[in-house]
Amino acid sequence: MKNYQHHADAANLMSLSDDGFVVLDRQGSILEISSQAASILGREREVVLGQSISVLPSLADVVGADTSMQRQDATLSFPNGRRALVSIRRSDASEDIRLIQLGDLDTFEYRRSKASGNMGRAGVNSAARNRTRPDFKAQRRLSPELNKVLSRGERAIQQGARILITGETGVGKTEIARHLHGSVTNANDPFVVVNCAISDPAEIVAQLFGDDDGSLGYFEQAAGGTLFLDEIAELPMSAQIRLLGYLENNETGTSHRKINENARVNLISATNLDLRKLSSEGKFRSDLYYRLAIMDLKVPPLRQMPALIDHLSHRFMGTLNQRRTSSMILSKRLRGALQDYSFPGNIRELLNLIQKAAILMEDAEDMDELIGELIEPVSIEAGIENFAIGSSDLRAEVKRFEREIIDRAIKLHGSKRKAATALGVDIGTISRKTSNSNEHNEDGINPPHKQTSTRS
Predict the structure, then answer these.
(1) Which of 77, 114, 118, 306 is 20 to 30 A from 141 via CA?
(2) pLDDT below 50 — which residues of the chain?
């Protein structure tokens, strides 16, 4: 690599490997970084390219100040949950270039188990989860709304406050809880997840607080770490009473034995329901709600954070491409269709759509068929959410809402004629209702689009 002149060619070659690569000059500046390496490190390639290795502190510590070392290996864990074997190579003391190779250990374990025939369903799912863990560092830069949620949660858990995470199904409440846990603990501290939607009250009580025969409950198992109570709204009333007793007196079990007060437990709960409303209806104890929700973190739905859609799609594709013989690429039009979709299932639904697209694009005859198979043409629910409330001119508001649906359908399907088919009306109706604008080309695949309404 003494005559390292063609960085673009080198980047293309490096992209053929599942490992990540970082190329440094003698001064420690990043000459090249592969997309795989950027993904493992949880950084954007364009941001770190040309910067000093010091912008990647974990790698900088391994590289060190001694540029004469010819070979060096280390195992690192990164904040985004990825683990890598890091190898640094130089050919001789006069070499101006150093190559850092990052082997994704989760990918290696997955492929090793698969090759040996020991890969069960649990192993496949575990490997997939590790590689699709969110890159919150990048997401925070893209979404001020999410950054605000995470920042508040980090401050709360650092101060020992109990946290309630609320939001629609699929927004990533468990991953946010895992991130908050990692912000105040180390890799060896327990993160115990409890699904409170267990029909048998006696079973959930025993699981939470243990039995009189001495078996430990989840609170004791989570000592020194974090207990995450998912679906907290489904907790049976008898278990709510026991949980309230624990929070007030630090007691567990029917024998009222005390949990070690020095073994602190971070308590995070989550639900997609309105606990305040349930409390007012007598379906959830209000005194328990106020003890659980010292900090109530409301996670925005994905449709309110559109900048994350491309980012998440790219990460999900990266996971899928590790199992494909040819890389999956989303077309500009399909990416536009995803941007226009309301995602009632949020991040979980986006992952499902990317997985489905990877299957369907192999035999879909055209983009219209693929988009039609993947998503609904228009999300009426999203439109209703954005419908202007409080206007005295109902006719004007209905007309505005109707025009917004038509505009989105035209953008989604590429022409007025196809939009008319999708909406179940004739082309004359679409033409008449859009006659005051020439912004859509009849047959354009990606026509320009402007918002024709102002949301209040």
Answers:
(1) 77
(2) 1-6, 8, 65-67, 119-130, 253-255, 377-392, 437-456
